[in-house]
Design goal:
This protein is mainly α. It has 2 domains: 31 residues, no CATH class; 374 residues, Cytochrome P450 (Cytochrome p450, Orthogonal Bundle). The strands form 3 sheets. It has a two-stranded antiparallel sheet. A hairpin with a 2-residue loop joins strand 1 and strand 2. Helix 4 packs antiparallel against helix 11, helix 9 crosses helix 11 and helix 11 runs parallel beside helix 17. The longest helix has 32 residues. It is globular. The C terminus is likely disordered. The structure holds protoporphyrin IX containing FE. InterPro entries: Cyt_P450, Cyt_P450_CS, Cyt_P450_E_grp-I, Cyt_P450_sf, Cytochrome_P450_monoxygenase. Keywords: Heme, Iron, Metal-binding, Monooxygenase, Oxidoreductase. This is Cytochrome P450.
């Protein structure tokens, strides 16, 4: 609407063109993340996402890239599958659960599922939301006081600090709204905005999310027998001087994994479910592909190997990410039906046209700051959609995207 280049402020230009992607985000671009990302810092120690310095980021990225490699994600599938079985039985219950008038259960169900999986994979302990059918996680009442117990705790690692139960997905939403808005403002304006009454309650969300990360780390460190998980790898990591990550750095990385890993997958799964419910033709076509691929398999959860290369499922996932990416601005497509959910575009295109589409389609970004969790995200999205749409037919109860009936 405004053209390719828009000058948003004297030193801020928005560019909407695929050719700009490698120039800005590519490995050889030399560009650093902007002060926008300072607003995401909720601990004194930065995490991988909001570290601006190249050397600081490279150090973290090197440690964490092993955790999220294709190979590691394949190994995590076992943990995920066990967890999926639980999830599917909850989806069976969801059939009656979503009928409760006060609930918009589909969206909530995806949030609970996604948080439980991240809790399990990252900390060896699901949050227990899906079984409780409740948005709930324990969070340290004071981040500083809880972090202080890490240095005073004995070897038995019994961290004792005051905690509260919080609706963590709701609070992460409030935090996201606030910091995305703050990020766009000059740094000197941010404290003034935060003094305004309307923003104070959302401001509380920042330490609350941080508190839930500290609690997850402490809980994991209390349970020395927990299965090998992502935190294990962070605990084992050493810097060039042989030093482990500090409790604060661990908590900062943990909060990133919770925020980046759970809400993104939940939102995308929910959006795609909505598009499929809205378009019964596409849903039936996907189900036919799944029926064929899974006909020799009677397990509840679709095995990733059986569904990871299905062309129509791939197209459905791509189309969902294109239209409803949790990281907006990551897809660029022009044409008459560009705003329609039309998975066939990914199957029908070929040659230069397909290449141009793929060059412009970067839901996980590109370059050194691209999503490190994309392998995990892709596995979860493919598995959950295949599992659910092989088992259920989903129809819209109304035009409202969040009030659907399974
Ligand atoms: C549909 C799912 C997902 C999408 C669309 C997505 C997208 C993205 C994008 C676009 C970025 C770059 C953002 C920026 O620099 O401003 C990013 C970064 C990141 N994502 Fe994801 N993500 C998803 C799932 C996940 C999962 C499951 C995890 C891990 C459990 C994860 C962990 C991260 C981390 C740690 C970063 C920071 C990387 C760095 O700065 O080096 N993401 N993601």
């Amino acid at each position: 609407m405004y053209g390719i280049f828009v000058c948003l402020s004297p030193n801020h230009i928005s560019i909407v063109h695929p050719v700009a992607l490698p120039a800005v985000y590519g490995h050889s671009s030399g560009a650093l993340k902007a002060p926008f990302y300072d607003a995401f810092a909720s601990f004194k120690t930065r995490n991988m996402f909001n570290t601006i310095s190249r050397t600081g980021h490279t150090r973290k990225r090197r440690i964490e890239s092993q955790i999220f490699s294709q190979q590691s994600v394949r190994e995590l599938e076992g943990t995920t599958r066990v967890h999926h079985i639980d999830l599917v039985s909850q989806w069976d219950k969801l059939y009656s659960y979503v009928k409760r008038a006060e609930s918009d259960g589909v969206r909530e169900g995806f949030n609970y599922w996604s948080f439980d999986i991240i809790g399990d994979l990252a900390f060896g302990d699901p949050f227990g939301m899906i079984l409780a059918a409740k948005d709930t996680a324990r969070s340290a009442k004071s981040v500083n006081a809880s972090l202080a117990t890490f240095s005073t705790s004995s070897n038995t690692k019994k961290f004792a600090f005051e905690m509260e139960e919080l609706p963590v997905t709701e609070i992460i939403g409030q935090r996201g709204e606030l910091i995305t808005m703050l990020g766009w403002l000059p740094k000197y304006v941010r404290p003034i905005i935060l003094m305004m009454p309307g923003f104070r309650s959302n401001l509380q969300a920042i330490p609350k999310v941080a508190g839930s990360a500290v609690t997850a780390v402490a809980k994991r460190m209390n349970d020395l027998d927990a299965h090998a998980d992502m935190l294990n790898r962070l605990l084992d990591a050493r810097d060039e001087n042989g030093e482990p990550m500090s409790p604060e750095e661990l908590s900062s990385e943990a909060s990133l994994i919770i925020v980046a890993g759970a809400i993104t997958v939940a939102n995308t799964s929910c959006a795609i479910t909505y598009y499929l419910a809205r378009d019964q033709r596409v849903q039936a076509k996907l189900q036919a592909e799944l029926d064929d691929a899974l006909k020799a398999d009677d397990s509840i959860v679709a095995p990733h190997d059986a569904i990871k290369h299905l062309p129509y499922l791939d197209a459905v996932v791509n189309e969902g990410l294109r239209l409803d990416s949790p990281a907006p601005g990551s897809a660029y497509l022009r044409g008459e039906n560009a705003s329609e959910f039309y998975p066939e575009r990914w199957v029908e295109a070929s040659g230069d046209q397909k290449k141009a589409m793929l060059d412009a389609f970067v839901p996980f970004s590109i370059g050194p700051r691209a999503c490190i969790g994309c392998n995990l995200a892709s596995m979860q999205l493919h598995t959950v959609l295949a599992t659910l749409f092989h088992r259920f037919n989903v129809v819209l109860e109304s035009d409202d995207p969040v009030r659907s009936q399974v």
